[in-house]
Amino acid sequence: MSKYRLYHTLIVVMFLGCFLYSVYTRTPEGFIVTIIVGIVGIGLILVNHKLNKKSET
Fold first, then answer.
1. Is pLDDT above 50 for 57?
2. What local confidence, expressed as pLDDT, does residue 39 receive?
3. What whole-number distance in Å separates Cα of residue 44 and Cα of residue 22?
4. Is the pLDDT of residue 16 over 80?
5. What is the pLDDT at residue 54?
6. Which residues are CB-contacts of 47 (< 8 A; sequence separation ≥ 6)?
7. Is the distance from CB of 33 to CB of 18 less than 8 angstroms?
8. How far, CA to CA in Å, does 47 sit from each of 10, 14, 21, 26, 28?
C-alpha cells in the first residue's frame, strides 16, 4: 500500500469514527465535533493529495 493511500485511509477512518460518535450521541457538541472534524479531514486529504502529486515531467 502506498503512503498516499495509507494516509488517505487513516484520515477517512478518523472522520468516520467522529461521524459515528456524532450520530450516537445526538447532542449539539457531537454536531460541532462532526463539522470541525469534517473541515480538518477535508483539509488533510487535500494536503495529502498535494504532497503526493506526481510531477508531469
1. no
2. 92
3. 20
4. yes
5. 67
6. none
7. yes
8. 14, 16, 25, 30, 29
- The residue-averaged pLDDT of 34-51 equals 88
pLDDT above 70 for 55:
no
CA–CA separation, 4 vs 2, rounded Å? 5
Give this prediction's pTM.
0.74
Cα–Cα nearest to 21, from 5, 13, 3, 44: 13
Burial 25-36 (b: 16+ CB within 10 A, else e): eeeeebeebbee
Cα Rg for the chain, rounded, in angstroms?
14
Q: List helix spans (H) across the chain.
A: 3-25, 28-51
What amino acid occupies position 50? Answer: K
Q: Which residue in the block uniquely carries the three cell numbers 485511509?
A: 9
